[in-house]
UniProtKB/TrEMBL annotation:
It comes from Pseudoduganella namucuonensis. The keyword DNA-binding does not apply. This is Sodium transport system permease protein. Keywords: Membrane, Transmembrane, Transmembrane helix. The lineage of its organism: Bacteria, Pseudomonadati, Pseudomonadota, Betaproteobacteria, Burkholderiales. Coiled coil: none annotated.
Length: 406
């Protein structure tokens, strides 16, 4: 068995594609993509909130104070349009981003202590509605001023005014520490990156170990060797398990080093930066918890290795194996992403759901709120699932109808 294992590992090490998918992508590509996306998204959001928005306003003579607020804000630039009928065309051509229409009798309604409305015309077919938020922020200033004037006319004291404006004030007292708050965000995405990396790293070698051997005609030679078929399956399984675990652990190491480096650099420039908080969180994670994350990856890698090898053995060709294995990424994504849904928390029910339990356990480990009895149950259930899948793969490999399905 070990001879077959070493032979397969040597072939994979010599293969440039395996080196790229197993070593280069986990260490460099994934952390670089995550960092670039984080920097790009934060800069784009910041740019969207600070960008100058051209706008048009109609009926500003009915509400000069409201029009003056927008004119005084440097984030807005007024553009003259001939009439209200030109609003839609101007927005479609991006001459303006939005238009305000103040109806007749606007000020009279306010003076009569009745609610007045301002029409906002804009294209809201966007994922993040920045325009509405910025317009609402400006109008809120006028709302506050109007409320204070209306209530001050009643001769209320400052305490009575505060009561009338906001009778019940909500004061938050969070019981979660900084690590738990940041860990809920980081821990939600960590299982996705690690498990997807583990699966993707083992996909190409799995296709080669099963369907690839069939196409090259070397499978028959291997079956004629004086080695039990169970040992052959176990050797191939260990190859895929090694590749998947190596890829995941390298990804953990590279991303941890990246967070430490970026956080240390940002801490020197600003102690209040979000990256500095991430560094503090990473530094608060002990070696034992990191070892538990790695330990949780082991049965997951075994599950992937067993499924990938079974599909590759069943396939008649390299192309068919690739077609069978590709949908596996979607099937794997669903239980992992389920851990991010609201209401899905680590309990005895979810501890029995494969992959979802691993994702939830990793999140709790990063947050520092892991129930170690639950961890043992998850590790045991995942290991039993991996063992059952490996037994199925071994039985699958011993069937002639599967091996020589022509």
């Amino acid at each position: 068995m070990w001879t077959i294992y070493l032979k397969e590992m040597l072939e994979l090490v010599r293969d440039r594609k395996t080196f790229i998918f197993t070593i280069l992508i986990p260490i460099f590509a994934v952390p670089a993509i995550v960092t670039a996306f984080g920097y790009f998204s934060s800069s784009m959001f910041d740019k969207a909130h600070r960008a100058e928005l051209p706008y048009a306003v109609f009926g500003k003579q009915h509400a000069p104070e409201v029009a003056a607020l927008f004119a005084a804000d440097r984030g807005f630039r007024e553009v003259a349009l001939p009439d209200r009928a030109a609003i839609r065309a101007a927005i479609d051509k991006e001459v303006i981003k939005f238009a305000l229409v103040i109806p007749d009798g606007f000020q009279q309604r306010l003076d009569g202590q009745r609610q007045a409305a301002v029409e906002l015309h804009y294209n809201n077919a966007v994922t993040v509605d920045v325009i509405r938020k910025r317009v609402q922020a400006v109008l809120e200033e006028e709302n506050v001023a109007q409320r204070e004037r209306a209530l001050s006319a009643l001769g209320l004291s400052q305490q009575q005014l505060s009561f009338a404006l906001n009778p019940i004030k909500l004061e938050e007292r969070s019981t979660a520490g900084k690590r738990e708050r940041l860990g809920a965000v980081v821990g939600g995405m960590l299982p996705y990156l690690l498990l997807m990396g583990c699966l993707m790293a083992a996909m190409y070698p799995a296709i080669d170990l099963g369907a690839g051997e069939k196409e090259r005609g070397t499978l028959e030679t291997l079956l004629l060797a004086p080695v039990p078929r169970g040992s052959i399956v176990l050797a191939k399984f260990l190859v895929l398990f090694t590749v998947g675990m190596t890829s995941s652990l390298l990804m953990v190491g590279s991303m941890s080093a990246l967070l430490f480096a970026a956080g240390s650099a940002s801490a020197r420039s600003s102690a209040q930066s979000g990256m500095s908080g991430l560094t503090e969180m990473m530094q608060s994670i002990g070696a034992g918890e990191l070892a538990m994350v790695a330990l949780m990856l082991a049965p997951s890698a075994a599950i992937f290795a067993s499924i990938l090898l079974s599909l590759s053995i069943y396939a008649k060709s390299y192309k068919e194996a690739a077609g069978l294995i590709s949908p596996l990424m979607i099937l794997t994504l669903l239980p992992v992403m389920a851990a991010l849904l609201p209401g899905v928390e680590l309990n005895w029910m979810w501890a029995m759901v494969p992959l979802t339990n691993v994702a939830l356990a990793m999140k709790e480990l990063v947050k520092g709120t892991m129930n170690y009895n639950m961890f043992a149950v998850i590790l045991l259930s995942t290991t039993l699932t991996a063992g059952a899948l490996l037994a199925l793969c071994s039985w699958w490999f011993k069937r002639e109808k599967v091996l020589f399905r022509n």
